[in-house]
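Q: Structure tokens for this one, please.
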Amino acid sequence: MANRIIRRVGDDVLRKVARPVDTINKSIITLLDDMAETMRSANGVGLAAPQVGILKRIVVIDVGSGLIELVNPEIIHAEGKQIEVEGCLSVPGKWGEVERPAKVVVKALNRNGEEIQIEGEGLLARALCHEIDHLDGELFIDKVIRFVEPDEK
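A: Here is the predicted structure, written as tokens:
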């Protein structure tokens, strides 16, 4: 496993739409492992492949209940509303209130190529939406209702 460089706002790769993964092979498994290590090293709760310069539809998330690896994730159900403060490893030093669904259901493939569904509420729902946005070239700063100071977060 290797720590990868996290791309920052202003890098064009963050504004591009990621491509679906056709085959889960050794390079995809290595990417999943590297992304998990990179996310943990940066004290993040999620990381999308475009954030490490790879335009593939892959995300990793860990909100404290174990690592979630998603290949080709897609939100298939969303309900409710929550407004919470978010930050992003690609936008260091900025935080803002963002409206997200309170609950989501996401379908994706796991590292073995098996279709899975993840249900998330609260922080997990926010993380799933935030990371999937990255796959479509969207950043949380595009959706901020109000930026907040570090002492407000």
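A few notes: The beta strands are 46-48, 58-61, 68-79, 82-86, 95-100, 103-109, 115-121, 144-148. Residues 127 and 136 are 15 Å apart (CA to CA).
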